[in-house]
Amino acid sequence: MTLRPLAVGLATALLAVGALVLLLALTGHDPAAALGALWAGAAGSRYALLSATLVRAVPLILAGLAVAVAFRAGILNVGAEGQLLAGGGAATAVGLALGAAPAIVALPAALLAGVAAGAAWAGIAAVLRRRFGVLEVISTIMLNFVALHAAGWLVRGPLQEPQRIYPQSPSLGAAAQLPVIVPGSRLHLGFALAVAAGVALWAFLRFTAAGFRLRATGLNPFAAASAGRIDVAAVTTAAFLASGALAGLAGAVEVTGVTYALYENLSPGYGYTAIAVALLARLHPLGVVASGILFGALEAGAGAMQRDAGVPAVVVTVVEALLILLVLAADRLGERLRERAPAPAAAVPAVERAEAAA
Amino acid sequence: MRLQLDGVVKRFGPVRALDGASLDVRGGSLHAVLGENGAGKTTLMRVAFGLLQPDAGTVRLDGTPRRLASPADAIAAGVGMVHQHFTIVPAMTVAENVALGGRGRYDARAAAEVVRRVGAQTGLALDPAARAADLPVAAQQRLEIVKALARDARLLILDEPAAVLTPAEARELLTWLRRFVDGGATAVLITHKLRDALAFADDVTVLRRGRTVATSPAAATDEAALTAHLLGEAGVDTAAVDTAGVATAGVGRAHYAVATPAPSTPAVTTPAVSARGLSYVDARGVTRLRDATFEVRTGELLGVVGVEGSGQHELLRLLAGRLVPSGGALDLPARVAWIPEDRHRDALLLDGTLVENLALRGAGAHRGLLPWPRLARRARALVDRFDVRAGATGVRLPARALSGGNQQKFVVARELAGDADAAPPELVVAENPTRGLDVRATAAVLARLREARAAGAAVVFYSSDLDEVLALADRVLVVYDGRVRPTPAERDAVGRAMLGAA
After folding, report:
1. How far apart are alpha carbons A186 and A202 in whole angstroms?
2. Residue A326's CB: how many other CB atoms inside 10 A?
3. Residue of chain A whose alpha carbon sits nearest to that of B339
4. Consecutive H or E run containing B189
5. Best residue in A1, A3, A212, A217 for a mutation probing chain B (most B CBs within 10 Å)
6. B37/B119 Cα distance (integer angstroms)
7. Beta strands in B26-90 (DSSP E)
8. Which domains are seen in chain B, by residue range?
9. Which residue of chain A is at minimal alpha-carbon distance from B367?
10. Is B356 in Cβ contact with A229 (below 8 Å)?
11. What CA–CA distances, in Å, run from B216 to B20, B197, B202, B205?
């Protein structure tokens, strides 16, 4: 069950690298030099690995888990970006307000504020769907823009730094900063949190009754309600909130672990890349940890490639997009092969259609 | 326009939905097509409308043989069809819905003009600018008819048009249809309702098991004669299933008819279910079930029958505890097994393993961790005991990989084998549990229901196949127009009650 998706993921990654080489060659770059720069930037040194790749991976993993848990429940939450910003904003506000408190209070409070704000932001979409039937694909993506502008207002208004010059918040005090876990690097406690969240989510989905209810609802809400007597509306709402909470945590961790302040462009699209991260992992929480690190490496390497080999960083975005297309194509292919295999299974729906029609 | 269908055969896998059906609709007449559930009425009309290609037989329009490869061909030839399930786009206006499928640029004014013209000619007035979703159901149906007429249909096929309407709306529609035909058009009306057919149609054709068994002018027949044709004589039917190597033609549905009916209910039993004045009103406000009072006793198999849409769907879900009554009292036992008609939609996680599908039962009430190793052992035991062919990978296989018969055997196993504490169900509710199954799987499923009864469960069994119910049931409850009526378990009486006859 867990091995096959891994193999598919690996194969797609290799294909994507092949496509990157082709793309580089076609645009007149030296693939070897470019890939070398990419590798150096992503994993070529202790600094690249710990302070660039893994640090970059933290928000991608957390937001990727947010997307995965929603998709597993059959909710197309594409609003991780907005929920992440809501989390970052709330964590900053609480972290600044508790500037004088000891770290044991200020840090958890800031992170919890981020979690709550992310959940609340997703909760808007949950209520819209439950009460008015608004598709979450629409509402969550719209709420992303609302969150972006709300963050812009925060850093020019109530949370702006005292000199009122830059659109950013004041810096968080040391008490509200996540500690570094590898001395001499920028790798902060958020990485451990992200990995722990991945393991916890995996165990939740795999072993608990509540996790099974979430998966069953995502697989077939009708059967979940009819055969399983599951309260599908309640499960859906809970999954919405959990997804928002994880994305909110991603924002809170980014603020307290990396930027130490709220910026309008706190996230370079982490919430959108997270969709790719989750899909590449086939929505498997442990896979999300791995694909989050892969995407972290790609994005860290992209900067180095642009700097050292003169290749525009945007080609990495092309590779990311290719990865998604390949994963989706592999899924379709798998379905086709399954459909073709057992002949009797295919005959039955036709019979049922005939009887239903008659 | 005259429509002639001759010797039409249509197979779906091993099932012959149409087995040489014929129909002759005279130009300028209203022709009613009658038949039980699954008799092939809709299938035949789908052939006439180009939605299905017949395996054999001919379609002639005004005497000319035609090959209708698609609905577009049929529309071009002047045939229009109003389906049982609406095909309008709710978000679009009436005019847009009518223009849909046309070619070239959409001209709002011209489209509105068409709606008004058809309305003036036929009396089916609609506001061209109204949103389809905002129309009441009867008006949505008018829109379906206007859509067909806007394409200059000269032959209109209506599939169970009254099913979604209130009695008053249905009468209004049929009165309109009569006038429409009197004005020179031709129409085919598919219906369950004998009285409607006799009151409004010029000619009546009865289909049974994919064949035309009677056709005559409405004036030359009556309810009793039609009922006899509709129900046929039990036992002489030819095979509807000609699967390779499983059943031989001619044996037909004997697979359950030959099974010895279990001896009647033991003398002293207690009611497992009791319903008093039970009613159910759906989300649209339509009363689906009214004032139902009955009991189901332990060790009893209660057969439920009814033509489609009579309220049996809701009745079974109320008994299974899947719907909450709108009124009345309903006492249900604690342990209920539920086998819904559409297993793909309501019973299975097709992409889940058999173990996960076993865990689905009772998933709503589980707490804490799920005992996966124990569930896996239980799933293996059920697969063995209930003869589910799950192949080499066994219970780790997704449900999708099983054949339909084995999927259903698994659902039956899950529901009948009881909860995790292995206590058997006190009530079994099965809705068309043999739908789409081959002879062997059908026999297996029915045998399990009889075992459940023998073990002391109260069993409620609905099937759209009347013979199947009669072969199995101790008592029969007929649902007609939202009312339940206990009926002697004999073919004639049940058949009449199903059609609303006294």
Report:
1. 27
2. 20
3. A227
4. strand B186-191
5. A212
6. 34
7. 30-35, 56-61, 64-66, 79-82
8. 3-231 (3.40.50.300), 254-361+369-498 (3.40.50.300)
9. A209
10. no
11. 18, 12, 9, 7
Res A115: pLDDT: 98
Residue A52 pLDDT > 50: yes
ipTM confidence: 0.86
Residue A351 belongs to domain spanning: 3-357
- Extract the tokens encoding A287: 């896979």
Report how many domains make up chain A: 1
Name every chain B residue with its beta carbon within 8 A of the beta carbon of A342. 401, 403
Q: Name the 3-class secondary structure at B100.
A: coil
pLDDT per position as a tens digit, A286-328: 999 999 999 999 999 998 888 888 888 888 888 888 887 887 8
Tokens of B181: 């035909």
Instruction: Please name the amino acid found at residue B151.
Output: R
Encode pLDDT of B226-260 as tens digits: 888 887 754 333 333 333 333 333 333 333 333 34
B400/A338 touch (CB, cutoff 8 Å), yes or no:
yes
Q: Nearest CB to B13: which of A209, A222, A347?
A: A347
CB distance A358–B396 less than 8 Å? no
Alpha-carbon Rg of chain A, whole angstroms?
A: 22
Write the CATH number for A246. Answer: 1.10.3470
Q: Which residues of chain A make contact with B19, given a CB cutoff of 8 A?
A: none
| CA count, 13 A, side-chain hemisphere, B128 | 19
What Å distances lie between residue B328 and B14, B37, B163, B287, B500, CA to CA? 44, 30, 25, 13, 24
* Residue of B345, B360, B411 with shortest CB distance to A216: B360
